[in-house]
Each structure stands twice: as C-alpha cells, then as structure tokens.
Amino acid sequence: QVQLVESGGGLVQAGGSLRLSCAASGIIFGLNSMGWYRQAPGKQRELVADITTGGSTNYVDSVKGRFTISRDNVRNTVYLQMNSLKPEDTAVYYCNLATRRGNFWGQGTQVTVSS
After folding, report:
1. Helix count (H) and strand count (E) of the chain?
2. 38-to-48, 52, 90, 109, 113 alpha-carbon distances in Å
3. More confident position, 1 or 6
C-alpha cells in the first residue's frame, strides 16, 4: 500500500552537492518520521537523518553541518540536501517512513563521490 520513490542520486566530485528527494504515497499519513539511511559496501545500514511531522530532526555526527533534511507534510515528501560531499559518503541511500504501523523503505538511490 505504501510506496516510497527516491530520486536525485548520482556521481559527483568531492566537495560537490546533491539533493535527494523521496515521495511517499498510498496512505493518509498520521504522526510519523521520514528519514534517510545509507549502506556502503561491507558496512551496516546506518541512519543519516530523520525528521518528524513536527519538524524535529536528527543527524548522524558525520554529516552534521553538511547535510540538511526537510519535509513537505502536504506532499508527503522528504528531502536531503547534501553539501561538501566526501568519498566516505558513497553509499546507497534509502528513504524510510516510520509509523506506528511499521517501517517502509524505498528502493534506494546510489550516491557516488569521487576523489
């Protein structure tokens, strides 16, 4: 029933920027959080940032000051503005929707940062 569609990934040079978008559809949303996770080869999936319907945000320390998460509650869309990208940011980025009924995931979008 729930669909999450990501876009905005790609290949950039170190120091560059990308903006990821994730649009959710299929349900009427109540209180929830939307966020971005990433998984690099050989590593566990980690939370990058999330944001609640009330606007509270959370970031992993490694991206603080570089990434900004935001959302549009009317359009059920979450964004991740990524600046000053580093090769260490290279990963598949997954959109997540967390509700009291469960967690939902997008298909992932590849972000590659070259040296």
Report:
1. 0, 11
2. 7, 19, 9, 9, 14
3. 6
Mean pLDDT of the chain: 94
Q: How confident is the model at residue 73 (pLDDT cuts 50, 70, 90)?
A: confident
What gap in Å lies between CA 109 and CA 10, rounded to an integer?
8
Report the percent of the chain where pLDDT is more than 90.
82
64, two tokens: 């603080």
Asked whether 36 and 95 are in contact (CB, 8 A), the reply is yes
pLDDT band at 29 (very low <50, low <70, confident <90, very high): low
Residue 19 sits at φ, ψ, to 5 deg, of: -125, 120
Task: In whole angstroms, give the CA distance from residue 3 to residue 44.
Answer: 24
Could you give the maximum distance between any two Cα atoms of the chain, in Å? 42
- Spatial neighbors of 97 by CB under 8 A, at least 6 apart, are 2, 4, 24, 32, 33, 34, 103, 104, 105
**Would you tell me how many other CB atoms lie within 10 Å of the CB of residue 31?**
9
